[in-house]
Amino acid sequence: MIVSVTMVRNEADVVEAFVRHNLRFVDAMIVLDNGSSDQTPEILFSLIREGLPVYYLFDPDPSYVQDVITTALLYAAIERFNPKFVIPLDADEFITGTEGASSRDALVSALSPAAISLIPWITYVPGTRSILPTEDPLVRMDHRRSFEPRIVYKAIVPVGV
After folding, report:
1. Going by DSSP bridges, is the β-strand pair 28-33/54-58 parallel, antiparallel, or unpaired?
2. Pairing mode, strands 153-158 and 85-88
3. Residue 31 to residue 4: CA distance in whole angstroms
4. Which of 59, 86, 103, 135 is 20 to 30 A from 93, alpha carbon to alpha carbon?
């Protein structure tokens, strides 16, 4: 089992696409709402009512101590699900696979159960579709950098290491 953990605040423009897309790669998502004042909670509740494996937590504390909260969410994911891997994600991060393999298979084949895996981060930028009247950020962001000037990695944590 693969579980993602996320802290959100006022992510109504992206949260539905974030959940639907990343559930192709993970089995469950724990999302902590850090005091959203937009439609983020309603969107998440709608996805939960649909039966998607999204687990909503609310923290009204206005401080944004992402490192502390994300670590607590990681431990909560381990306690609740006992997953093989936990992926901390921001609401604007979309996991991608490699061509020729199913999305989940591509992700799993890149992971080590014995060490933290580092997956290169791909930066997408607005392109020609960004002017179209669509709500889906994956449609709006149709271009990526030809190279990353500074490679940044997303950590995927194996449980039990």
Report:
1. parallel
2. antiparallel
3. 8
4. 59
Give the number of residues written for the chain: 161
Amino acid at 75: Y
User: Are the C-beta atoms of 108 and 36 separated by less than 8 Å?
Assistant: no
Task: Please give the DSSP secondary-structure letter assigned to residue 128.
Answer: G
Contact 88, 70 (CB under 8 A): yes
pLDDT per residue of the chain (161 residues) written in tens, 0 to 9: 999 999 999 999 899 999 999 999 999 999 999 999 999 999 999 999 999 999 999 998 878 788 899 999 999 999 999 999 999 999 988 887 655 566 788 888 888 899 999 888 777 666 655 555 556 666 666 666 677 788 888 899 999 65
pTM assigned to the model: 0.85
Opening angle at CA 120, ends 119 and 126, nearest 5 = 130
Half-sphere exposure of 93 (CA within 13 A, CB side): 18
